[in-house]
Write a structure and sequence with these properties.
By secondary structure, the chain is an alpha+beta fold. It has twelve helices and 14 strands. The chain has a single domain, classed as Sandwich (Jelly Rolls). Keywords: Iron, Metal-binding, Oxidoreductase, Vitamin C.
Length: 368
Amino acid sequence: MSSTEESQAELIMDYDRLNELKAFDDTKAGVKGLVDAGILEIPRIFIRPCDELAEELNQCKSTLKVPVVDLGGIEVEDRRKKVVDEIREASEKWGFFQLINHGVPSSVLEGMIDGTRDFHEQDVELKKECYSRDRTTRRVRYETDLHLYNSKTANWRDTLNISMIVTGHIEPEEIPAVCREAFLEFMNHVRKLGETLLELLSEALGLKPDHFNAMECAKGQTLVCHYYPACPQPELTIGTDKHTDPDFLTILVQDQSGGLQVVHNNQWVDVEPIKQGLVVNIGDFLQILSNDKFVSVNHRVLANQIGPRISVACFFTGVFTPPKMYGPMKELISEEKPAVYKEFLVSDYITEFFSRPLDKSGLDLFRL
């Protein structure tokens, strides 16, 4: 270990981490509050472990490209078959693809990015009214790092969460006024797109188009509106730790900043922003339902000296209540290919997700 690594290890060990996490959390000003205060060095709670930092230095930059699927013309049979084939290949090999000609107007996408910026850049006292770590009763909440207290490294981002996971809907008045209109319009379009994608994914598995929607996989959405401020020492921290998503499907709109990466062939691959494009990834639940035919893969977001980076993800989590069991679909299991997962409740899976560090997937807990 070099002298720099030794001194950093001593620095990180010689403090009361829990107290520093709590002190930061209690400001309710988030990462943006640190940047607004003019810090030049990031607090220790954000510094990644030495082994992770050393590993980054040994990583080779990948030149691979995430698949791009053009959704235009899917009402024509031959065109639809081609799109289904492309989505099948991307879902089996990558677990990720980018989407163009998806039907969501560019004005709606830009409005959602702008609405997220407006929320995070408003007066901090107004934001504090939404600050909470209460996942169970607060449907709208602003916070820094969902896993702040049980991850090795605090993530360099602030988030506005808008959850419809339990009730399936939200009253417009509950959404902060500064982004209310943009949110409602975005959700209206993304819900429909989610249902369309689940039809195509059903067909990609050789099932009837309505299979996943009949199982209510498109229900219970959660919107997470991320704001990644510029970081004075991006090489020491991370915007979002590597993780897989505890849902069926995620649809993401990102600005043009870059920073999102996905694991493919044991390499980190950049998901380069496409103007007016969307990013789609397979969640853990769909990997379970497809009995490992589709893959839910690790992805992360790098911190950057230039910012803010803004992205908005819509998670389709299925039925939370009343309790509904999900598991490998009988159409995809046989003597030759037995079920590799046990059945689960969405509520149990998500409880496990929030009780573990972000970089620990829940899939292994439900594997037979």
